[in-house]
Amino acid sequence: MPDPAPCLTDTEEGRRLSAVEAEGWHRWGPYLSERQWGTVREDYSAGGTAWEYLPHDHARSRAYRWGEDGIAGFSDDRQLWCLALALWNGRDPILKERMFGLTNGEGNHGEDVKELWWYLDGTPTHSYMRMLYKYPHAAFPYADLVAENGRRKGQNRPEYEIAETGVFEGGRYHDVTVEYAKAAPDDVLMRVTIVNRGPEAADLHVLPHVFARNTWSWGWESWEPEPPRPLLRLTETGAVEATRGRSPPLRFAALQPAEFLFCENETNARRLFGTPGPAHPKDAINDRVVEGRHDAVNPLAEGTKCAAWTRLTVPAGGVAVLRFRLSPAASPDERDPAAFDAVMARRLAEADAFYAALQRDVTDPDARLVQRQALAGMLWSKQFYHFDVRRWLTGDPAQPAPPEVRRHGRDSDWTHLNNADIVSMPDKWEYPWYAAWDLAFHCVTFALIDPAFAKGQLILLTREWYMHPNGQLPAYEWAFGDVNPPVHAWAALRVYRMDQAMTGRPDRAFLERVFHKLMLNFTWWVNRKDAGDRNVFQGGFLGLDNIGIFDRSAQLPTGGTLDQADGTAWMAMYSLNLMRIALELAVEDPVYEDIATKFFEHFLTIAEAMTHVGGNGTGLWDETDEFYYDVLSLPDGRQVPLRVRSLVGLIPLCAVEVLDDDLAKRFPAFARRARWLLTHRPDLAAQVSRWEEPGRGNRVLLSLLRRHRMKALLRRMLDETEFLSPHGVRSVSKAHEAAPFRFPWDGQTFEVDYEPAESTTAVFGGNSNWRGPIWLPINYLLVEALTEFGRFYGPEFKIECPAGSGHYLTLPEIADELSTRLTRLVLRGPDGRRPVLGDDPLFQDDPHFRDHVPFHEYFHGETGAGLGAAHQTGWTGLLALLLQPRRTVSGGQVPAPPEA
């Protein structure tokens, strides 16, 4: 009888994960940003113009203050030493050291990267990683991309992308695959494989870079003695020795002939500012290779930045393989290509075994390919994020002081924030900074393969060097004080359950640790975002930038306040999540039953307020339209529903929790107090689905929606002429295409219509784009909500899906149907096409493109074509969960690896 297939934790990679803290396998990883230029943390301007202060043209010449960037970058977890790839095709005006893209002001719909690369594989410990970059033979079309997008700016036209420039026609490009494998935790192997896809031979210069992050140009803290300057120097063995402070020295070696070039990772002040500077600055390697200036690099073969330069002529269809190794200097100097490739093969085989265990019940080969690439994108999008806001505002000892106005400008009330950690990024080029609610979704996906990392990330954001003393979680570096939807508790509960499903052990210590901090955050919401103390909330954008008629994060042109259906529903959901966490902790400590009761009461008062808005009679639910709307509370006391049918009105579906029929037995104090509250406060009890509405067994349903309201919302959501597209739920009802919502005020008319792709209205920012596209985070929450409702109502309760079709499904079946439509975005259909790839035959038909899947920020509401950031694996990585079968655990169902 064959041995049973191993479970995930029994694979070699799974065993490494279990021992990762002891053995240091996470110490090295893909922690470089793909764009450090144009970020807030590098911006020292008076006006906060980050894109203009340090543009792409300066990036090759200016030393960064807070981090580093590069192509296919790898570094240690403090980013002291960095490894990245540079290329030159002999035609470009500059060395290709980093990905190029347009700034927010240059792009037709905001910032937009203009390169082609894909993350293809990776393991949680980064023992094996692989990505692919496509580099044209022709000169990179920098000027063309800027000029044509400038001509399209402000027009209802799509962005001009690099594939449209013609540089990939006829296969005239190199496929450059970069692989990393670790022979040991600190022994990093880098293999670069170049394939010439064109019909003629083509030159290519390959220059892996090793460099020290510049920490010495800014002056050391007064209490810290200045350490020795880092040094890279060529040794007699033909390898480069890297020394830095007390860290063990490293050795960087090429396993084939290479010329080593050295310079300093310091600003070229002469080029940028016309002032004296170092003799061999940061861009010296560029000047040596591209301009042929032999004097540009250091003749002493030492510095803080070096490159191993290899010149190749790759024949048509030919392949070249280059190997490099960064290892402890004390280890044997092993440069045998066969032994090198054996390590690579072993780590790849271990990665295959890891994913075979994860995907044992995923039968479709294409689904396995897509899921593995989605998870690879998550793993590649980790980044060392360093930002000390206090020092950023006041300036560095060795540099000129920033403009005084900055002390009262952006993020000036976040001086406690001092980050220097590995953090999951939404996207390392377009969004190379964490965002609080994005990160929550990332963690749920990470929990499928690395729950320890997921738990660590959720805790990290609540630590005192992230969370504000007042309890607010940091939003993102452009405005840490902005407000993101409060989904951290939801994520913590899901990660807890997924971790338990994988390991068989409930980590209540993690849950308790994060719970106490989230109670502070909940209190911040209650005290700061409930303007009238009515349990109705105003959160601003809450991630839905352009979905309403007003900029919800700015002062309203009408005066007054905007009572938000989504903000209030998020708080109802937050209450239920914290209540459920408290009950989980009460399994071992009955004291938490008291806290659970408190959050239960919060939920009921919020539900009551959504119906009556503080007792004034106008609710957020519109009985005529059978939909939730924001309500404009005017200074004269009038309340005006803003009848925009959008995700704002569907989010109340997500505030749902089912308590199992053993509630009274497991939590007698909670059950007793809850019944007392409902008996003595019938006004609260009447606002939610009945406490003991007939359902399967004696389960208890807590929801903002009675059965009637839930069915009414689902009729809208499942109507293909409104929200339901072939590829998921649209952000705005398609009904607004023919009937835009208009609101006249003081001689102006504010309007919302349906736009399936990028919004043509830039009033809320250059890349505000939520007028109709499909967006994964809310879609995923809706799938979960439907599954949870189904646990209560059972198989007898059915809804017509799609609306008007005459086809009735149970709620879990509708959740599956929505999941199928969402995964259809990226899976190959019967016609062989992937909707995400759009209509370009290069991406749909070319065998060297069609199976490399991008994970876009959002998707066209009709066609499913990918839009926005092309590597938004952070939240679109949720597709990996939708492709994973679910397992039943205490409290519901979660996507999880199969058991042994």
Question: Which helices and strands appear, and what pairs or packs with what?
Answer:
Layout: H1 12-18, H2 20-23, E1 28-29, H3 50-53, H4 56-59, E2 71-76, E3 81-88, E4 101-102, E5 112-113, E6 117-122, E7 128-136, H5 142-152, E8 173-184, E9 187-196, E10 202-212, E11 231-234, E12 240-244, E13 247-254, E14 259-263, H6 269-273, H7 284-291, E15 302-303, E16 305-314, E17 319-328, H8 337-358, H9 365-380, E18 382-388, H10 389-394, E19 418-424, H11 436-446, H12 451-460, H13 488-503, H14 508-528, E20 561-563, H15 565-586, H16 592-612, E21 621-622, E22 627-628, E23 630-633, E24 639-642, H17 647-650, E25 656-659, H18 663-666, H19 668-680, H20 682-685, E26 700-703, H21 707-717, E27 724-725, E28 728-729, H22 735-738, E29 741-745, E30 748-752, H23 776-793, E31 798-800, E32 808-810, H24 811-823, H25 841-845, E33 858-859, E34 866-867, H26 873-876, H27 879-882, E35 886-889, E36 892-895
Helix pairs in contact: 11-12, 11-13, 12-13, 13-14, 13-15, 14-15, 15-16, 16-19, 23-24
